[in-house]
Write a structure and sequence with these properties.
Blueprint (H helix, E strand, L loop, with lengths): L5 H12 L3 H6 L3 H12 L4 H15 L6 H15 L2 E3 L4 H12 L5 H10 L1 E3 L4 H7 L9 H10 L1 H4 L3 H16 L7 H11 L2 H9 L4 H11 L16 H16 L7 H10 L4 H9 L3 H27 L8 H35 L7
Antiparallel strand pairs: 1-2
Helix pairs in contact: 1-5, 3-4, 4-5, 4-7, 11-12, 12-13, 12-14, 12-16, 12-17, 13-16, 13-18, 14-17, 15-16, 16-18, 18-19
Length: 361
């Protein structure tokens, strides 16, 4: 199931309230929106999620203005995003439900039952998916998308390699004429970056960019030529991948979100196209995750050693920060070279075995 993020909701509100993106941000209770979206993600099933979204937004009143109208519009967008329609006729029934929710006489369960009785699902085709992921409500909201990158502290914590992966993902989307950036494009960005733990793990498992592109075309298809001009929005799944990566980086004590955390995010969403492709090309996402975490832990121990060595040198307090980052950069270069040598030695040993030569003799 595809979920809405905070800025997807704000995009809908901006359209309904007919105001600028920065204005709707100032006029909305962002914390209330986040709490409702967290509740929605804890549900299972489209009707249950839509019911939680409707009841939550009506009760929380996060929008300064036509809150009920915005709430209904957000639910319609959410349902449409998941390839379904919600019938609102007769409108009097909808108004009655909203009145009861606002008066605390009805909750998410009754809202879910209402949605379930009026939900019409549509079969998904590659052509429909390509058109659907355009998310027309995001058209013309380039400023809001820029704010999403520049204004949220989470994205300011992305390392340069991680940001480079995202740029590569956008380029991959354009090359396929897709009008969105999804987890499959993030996976391609991780591979084509060619650097770091994530890229090496994927290469070791034989997950190559050509193989991934072929599966993307097989699953989704190519877009119309020229359709990807201009700003390309991220899908809700891609945004969720960023959020999960940020959480993983913080949980592991990392100062910034790196490509390896982005890969963990792609693997976490097994229903996303990126996760599905990894499952097809590797033994399992669990196996990829184990290999990735093994290398990440090795790197982390090495970096902790450097940090500890600097902390034990009291005479260089004023230069510790700069020295630490300089030494960590050198350490990463050494570790990258060591991994490449290790891969070459492993390949050589395998070649010797194929020629019936014991590499340990």
């Amino acid at each position: 199931m595809r979920y809405l993020g905070r800025y997807d909701v704000l995009a809908v509100a901006a359209r309904v309230l007919r105001c600028a993106s920065d204005d709707v941000v100032r006029r909305s209770d962002l914390d209330a929106i986040d709490r409702v979206l967290d509740d929605v993600r804890a549900t299972s099933g489209l009707a249950e999620a839509a019911g939680a979204l409707l009841a939550g937004l009506v009760r929380a009143r996060p929008f300064d203005g036509a809150n009920r109208v915005v709430a209904v519009a957000v639910v319609l967008q959410f349902v449409s995003l998941n390839r379904a329609d919600l019938q609102l006729e007769p409108v009097t029934d909808v108004d009655e439900l909203l009145d009861r929710i606002a008066a605390d006489e009805a909750g998410r369960d009754e809202a879910a039952a209402f949605v379930r009785s009026r939900l019409e699902h549509h079969p998904v085709t590659p052509e429909d998916l390509q058109e659907h992921l355009h998310i027309e409500l995001l058209d013309g909201l380039g400023d809001l998308l820029q704010d999403w990158w520049r204004g949220d502290p989470m994205y300011e914590q992305f390392s340069e390699p991680a940001r480079h992966v995202i740029v590569l993902a956008q380029e991959e989307a354009r090359s396929l004429d897709h009008v969105y950036v999804g987890t499959e494009h993030l996976l391609l960005g991780l591979i084509t970056s060619g650097q770091g733990v994530a890229a090496h793990v994927l290469a070791d498992l034989g997950i190559t960019a050509p193989a991934v592109r072929d599966l993307v075309v097989e699953i989704i298809g190519r877009g119309r030529s020229g359709a990807a001009a201009g700003t390309i929005p991220f899908t809700p799944r891609a945004k969720s991948t960023f959020e999960f990566a940020w959480g993983e980086a913080r949980a592991r004590g990392a100062e910034q979100v790196g490509p390896e955390h982005l890969l963990l995010g792609v693997l976490h969403d097994g229903d996303g196209v990126g996760g599905q492709i990894v499952t097809k090309l590797a033994e399992s996402t669990d196996e990829v995750r184990r290999k990735l975490e093994k290398r990440m832990n090795w790197r982390q121990r090495s970096e902790s050693l450097v940090t500890g060595m600097l902390a034990e040198d009291p005479g260089t307090t004023w230069t510790t920060y700069g020295r630490r980052h300089h030494l960590l950069a050198e350490l990463n270069a050494v570790l990258d070279e060591n991994e490449r040598l290790h891969e070459q030695v492993a390949a050589l040993r395998e070649l010797l075995r194929r020629h019936h030569i014991d590499p340990d003799s």
